[in-house]
């Protein structure tokens, strides 16, 4: 017998699956979504006046500049791609490493294309459905060698870190993940989030699929980029939504919370202090969208 979750997943699949409406039609009109009887076009919003911006910018948060020159680490590309994240020795990240991860996984490249409506689109280092680039990176860290403890947003538009909350908020993530060992031991945690409207503007409810598909692409970049820098990583997908609230964006700048996270491996003495109540729930996957 199917569980309620499996039934809902099947229903969502049926509501957001693509089908061919008219193969002879050019462009987006040839694809439908959901029940073919409804004839619903898959590509939804085409009003460019309400198209969301491709970058999230916290205008009141002071940017901390990051270097764009990435030195060769000497790790062959195939070795980095094959790494699991567990091979690297303990290490404490610094600002250069955070910048490296940001640039190689969600950074803006010096390449662009101008569309028919005159908009300039800059390519990113990780692909996104429809080039909507709805994913955002946040770092939650303790005091690092050259960076104070805090919650930072990686600003892809200018390759900088913007401090959203000062202080060490890693304990909130420890509680949210049910005291997951890699989170409890990490000097820095990278949280990956999705701005749903930026993708749903074009893809309707199917944007929820894309949040996970595109996150998988970026996470694969993160793992490889960390391995190339000889930094240990581990992915953590199970977490409770409410306890992670202190690590969400600053007041007045709301954003969808973590899809998934990764943590750098610290040396044994570099452990955050955290509450261990044992009451935090853990559930697989990510919470449903609100």
What would you note in describing this structure?
This protein has 290 residues and is an alpha+beta fold. It has 2 domains: 43 residues, no CATH class; 218 residues, NADH Oxidase (3-Layer(aba) Sandwich). It is 25% helix and 20% strand. The strands form 3 sheets. The protein has a 7-stranded antiparallel beta sheet with strand order 3-8-7-6-9-11-10, with helices on one face. It has a two-stranded antiparallel sheet with strand order 1-2. The radius of gyration is 20 Å and the shape is globular. The relative contact order is 0.17.
Named CATH architecture of the largest domain: 3-Layer(aba) Sandwich
**Mean pLDDT over the residues:** 80
The assigned structural class equals alpha+beta
- What is the count of helical runs? 7
How far from one another are the termini?
28 Å
Number of discrete domains: 2
Question: Approximately how much beta-strand content do the residues carry?
Answer: 15-25%
